[in-house]
Specification:
The complex is a heterodimer of chains A (270) and B (268). Chain A has 270 residues and is mostly helical. In chain A, 69% of the residues lie in helices and 0% in strands. Chain A has nine helices and no strands. In chain A, helix 2 packs antiparallel against helix 3, helix 2 packs antiparallel against helix 7 and helix 4 crosses helix 5. Chain A is globular and about 70 Å long. With 268 residues, chain B is mainly α. Chain B has one domain: MetI-like (MetI-like fold). Helices cover 73% and strands 1% of the residues of chain B. Chain B has a two-stranded antiparallel sheet with strand order 1-2. The longest helix of chain B has 34 residues. Classes of the chains: A mainly alpha (270), B mainly alpha (268). Chains A and B meet through helix 3, helix 4, helix 8 and helix 9 of A and helix 3, strand 2, helix 6, helix 7 and helix 8 of B.
Chain lengths: 270, 268
């Protein structure tokens, strides 16, 4: 027990560079595996949260762009969505990494971009923006005609109309699908350290440590279930948070009215 | 040359995996529908477990697990009087005769074996997704159709094969189409499974070449190789989209759905 507390103090923040520098070499205990994989989860949460929050705004813009009347804006948004949804995230990571690498060769400014914390974040940000942009676009098409007509009747127009009627309704309709997108984004953060981006000084994410243990022990039956446990935990937290936001978005509706319900519907790979 | 062959590897993988996953899915969906409780639990459990866990974790896990499982079984059969335990601390040791593939086998056997382990893994994971889609599609077939079939005196099996299965495809196709797209996008993961696929070759060939080792020296071209892969996948996705759209239109013909009704109106 004491040994385990020692392990936790040594390795709990190993993935971001605090604590013991050397990874355990032999006699791997369950405690070490739990701590290190959990420590790697810091990165998964970091990528997931930042990409989701920043991607949300771009997604709104892309959705509006795809619904825009101006053909230039519409085509640009459509292509943006197609490129990021039509190709594997894995290849996108690789491409971005080597792209930044060659930029770095010319401009020193780009050197942080080749590190995972920024480069991979940008890819995830664009990727989730494309996926959720498509979701928001779908919701935008489903806004009941009555709502916009009512907004017109109240004399709302332009920004006020968008801010007070269209945007909240769009979010309300898109929310169940968007929750899935959030879960799915967290799952895909595991790809970061398996594509180009190097894990500098063995500071990797949860899957990086899980596969480290699986390699070292030749036993996949311990680290991967631990990883799965952590991810199920994260998924439950996301569902709770998004459910709360969803309730707030729906609070003005009659409580017994039918409303979009969340169903856990993960797709797997991006 | 390997680079071009690897495209073929990816296409072969798709060609083998898609039907295999579909049949796994069909089996899973049939099991989940079954009236026998354990079989139905098995089917539903299969669908539920695979869907809940991040995909690549599953890929990494399954390959080692399958490999060790096969070797373990062969070990039990071929060397029953092996004295040592198989799991010695951190090591997994089986007798030489049970190694899979055999240690002295030629290189291509190793490669093919790795490839088929990968195919099997893909099929299991995607089978669960297909099972989910097909399970939903079977439930979506309108009840009156089934009741009519019963009224005509068909038994459960006949109803299933003659009424439900032919009609479910139109409900299953959007889901299966999605799955196909996802499957295309999953193929780069072959790289993680140690198969020499396009990602591997793009990294190899694109890396800096010096005149000492090759007659075609060049700088770091990996970016361009990955750009080519990106375009390859985009084109593949686009073509699939168009084909699926056509198939959907073909399947909708004469169905009791909104789409079928719309087609009827156009045809007048």
């Amino acid at each position: 027990m004491e040994e385990c507390i020692q392990t936790i103090t040594d390795y709990a923040f190993r993935s971001i560079g605090f604590g013991e520098r050397l990874l355990p070499r032999s006699d791997f205990t369950l405690c070490q595996q739990f701590t290190l994989i959990g420590s790697g989860m810091i990165w998964n949460v970091y990528f997931g949260v930042l990409a989701l929050v920043s991607g949300f705004f771009l997604a709104t813009a892309v959705a509006l762009g795809k619904a825009a009347k101006n053909p230039v804006i519409r085509k640009a948004s459509e292509w943006f969505i197609f490129i990021f949804r039509g190709s594997p995230l894995f290849i996108q990571f690789f491409f971005a990494y080597f792209f930044f690498l060659s930029l770095k060769g010319q401009f020193a400014f780009f050197s942080p971009f080749t590190a995972a914390w920024l480069g991979a974040l940008i890819v995830l940000f664009l990727n989730t923006a494309a996926y959720s942009g498509e979701i928001f676009y779908g919701a935008l098409q489903c806004i009941p005609k009555g709502d916009t007509e009512a907004a017109d009747a109240y004399g709302l127009s332009g920004w006020t109309r968008f801010r007070r009627v269209i945007w909240p309704t769009m979010l309300r309709l898109a929310w169940p699908a968007y929750t899935n997108e959030a879960i799915f984004l967290f799952h895909s953060t595991t790809l970061v350290y398996f594509s180009g981006f190097p894990a500098w000084q063995q500071k990797g994410d949860a899957l990086y440590y899980a596969s480290f243990f699986a390699d070292k022990t030749f036993n996949p039956f311990v680290p991967y279930p631990i990883l799965a446990f952590y991810f199920i935990l994260v998924t439950l937290v996301i569902i709770a948070i998004m459910g709360r936001i969803g309730r707030r978005l729906n609070r003005h509706l009659p409580q017994d009215a039918p409303r979009p319900k969340f169903r856990f519907r993960p797709q797997i790979i991006r | 040359m390997g680079f071009y062959w690897s495209f073929l590897t990816v296409l072969t993988l798709l060609a083998i995996t898609a039907p295999l996953a579909l049949s796994f899915g069909f089996g899973g969906a049939m099991a989940a529908r079954s009236k026998i409780a354990p079989l139905s639990w098995f089917g539903k459990g299969y669908i539920a477990i695979v869907r809940g866990v991040p995909d690549i974790a599953f890929f990494l896990f399954f390959v080692i697990a399958l490999d060790q499982g096969i070797e373990y079984l062969r070990h039990q059969i071929k060397c029953p009087d092996w004295p040592d335990a198989i799991r010695q601390g951190n090591d997994f040791i089986v007798c030489t005769a049970a190694k899979m593939p055999l240690g002295n086998a030629p290189q291509w056997v190793h490669e093919t074996y790795g490839f088929f382990i990968a195919v099997f893994t893909f099929a299991i994971v995607f089978g669960a997704f297909a099972a989910n889609v097909l399970f939903g599609a079977m439930k979506a077939v309108p009840k009156p159709q089934i009741e009519t079939a019963h009224a005509y005196g068909m038994n459960t099996r006949q109803t299933f094969w003659r009424i439900v299965v032919p009609q479910m495809w139109v409900y299953a196709l959007p889901g299966l189409g999605n799955l196909w797209m996802v499957l295309i996008k999953a193929t780069p993961l072959l790289f993680l499974l140690g198969v020499e696929d396009i990602v591997y070759w793009a990294r190899e060939l694109g890396a800096t070449k010096t005149p000492q080792f090759t007659s075609y020296p060049h700088g770091d071209w990996r970016m361009w190789y990955f750009l080519a892969l990106l375009v390859f996948y985009l084109a593949f996705t686009r073509v699939s989209e168009i084909v699926l759209d056509r198939t959907m239109r073909r399947l909708t013909r004469g169905q009791a759905t909104a789409g079928g009704e719309a087609q009827r109106k156009v045809a007048g």
